[in-house]
């Protein structure tokens, strides 16, 4: 699939921003609000509890977006039991973009292209980026240090430079971006779009519990703890939620065994709240439209 298809997708956005997919947080309300505000909304298909619920969500999204672009995030790891069923269903709705997580995107690319969807892989290192390029993705989502949830270890400067050694195609950049300044910087690095998750956690359309949203509003960059103890891979968490779960943020236990079972994962993420280093600029509960308006003003400054 050619780069011009992605360019055409970007041209349909009023701001070069993706509302990044967030486990247990982003669903139809967020995706639709994002689309109507002029950015690219996305959600992980596993947020729908069953394939039946996913179908309802996809109907709602298709209707609510009314032709505006939207994206979905799919787990491609073979141990995710709903992987094939969710993908088949998703492709019937022809998302503009599919972002793959946790594994090789190889097996979905041909089918996604046949359905008219672009496939980008979410990667945290040049090694994974190269594997995704070799598999034939249309673009890469580079997750840099400071990202909410599972994070990358690399500075965006070093990461983009390393990837540009072998990939001159579309790039989306995520991790620590929450303001117009950050979006402008991502663009200056050559990214087509900025990938913002944490900035949307405390939005009206977010499925986060009220206490979670308030904790995001009350937290600063100093309250973000990076640990692999919860899920087995490095992720950023809110200090106060670790404390509430009986953990000592300054003395986190050793790495947990990675387990992509949906039910185990849901319990971890429901009880312990993820957020990235970009929490600082989140000062109040806002609608997605208000956040996009604020980012637009900042970007014009
Ligand atoms: C609460 C939360 C849940 C997340 N869940 C997912 C997920 O299910 N799939 C995924 O690919 N990324 C997930 N992410 C990562 C985001 O998609 C994105 O990479 C990240 O939020 C970007 O960094 P930022 O939070 O600094 O904006 C999650 C992030 C957060 C904060």
TrEMBL record:
Alphabetical UniProt keywords: Flavoprotein, FMN, Monooxygenase, Oxidoreductase
Domain of life: Bacteria
GO function term, MF aspect, one: nitronate monooxygenase activity
Record-linked InterPro entries: Aldolase_TIM (IPR013785), NMO (IPR004136)
EC number(s) from the headed UniProt entry: 1.13.12.16
Keyword Oxidoreductase found: yes
Flavoprotein in keyword set: yes
Enzyme class: oxidoreductase
Similarity comment: family membership: Belongs to the nitronate monooxygenase family. NMO class I subfamily.
The name this protein goes by in its record: Nitronate monooxygenase
């Amino acid at each position: 699939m050619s780069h011009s298809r992605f360019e055409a997708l970007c041209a349909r956005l009023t701001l070069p921003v993706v509302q990044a997919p967030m486990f247990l947080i982003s669903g139809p309300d967020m995706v639709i609000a994002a689309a109507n505000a002029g950015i690219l909304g996305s959600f992980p298909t596993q947020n729908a509890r069953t394939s039946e619920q996913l179908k309802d969500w996809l109907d709602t999204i298709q209707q609510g977006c009314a032709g505006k672009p939207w994206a979905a995030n799919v787990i491609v790891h073979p141990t995710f039991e709903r992987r094939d069923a969710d993908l088949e269903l998703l492709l019937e709705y022809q998302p503009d973009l599919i972002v793959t997580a946790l594994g090789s995107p190889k097996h979905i690319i041909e089918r996604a292209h046949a359905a008219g969807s672009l496939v980008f892989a979410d990667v945290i290192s040049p090694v994974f980026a190269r594997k995704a390029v070799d598999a034939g993705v249309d673009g890469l989502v580079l997750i840099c240090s400071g990202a909410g949830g599972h994070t990358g270890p690399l500075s965006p400067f070093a990461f983009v430079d390393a990837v540009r050694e072998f990939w001159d195609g579309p790039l989306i950049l995520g991790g620590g971006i929450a303001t117009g300044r950050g979006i402008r910087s991502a663009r200056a690095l050559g990214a087509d779009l900025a990938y913002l998750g944490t900035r949307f956690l405390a939005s009206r359309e977010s499925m986060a519990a009220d206490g979670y949203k308030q904790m995001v509003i009350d937290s600063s960059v100093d309250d973000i703890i990076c640990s692999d103890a919860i899920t087995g891979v490095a992720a950023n968490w809110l200090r106060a939620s670790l404390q509430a779960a009986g953990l000592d943020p300054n003395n986190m236990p050793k790495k947990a065994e990675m387990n992509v079972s949906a039910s185990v994962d849901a319990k971890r993420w429901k009880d312990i709240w993820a957020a990235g280093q970009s929490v600082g600029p989140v000062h109040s509960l806002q609608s997605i439209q208000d956040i996009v308006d604020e980012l637009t003003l900042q970007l014009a400054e």
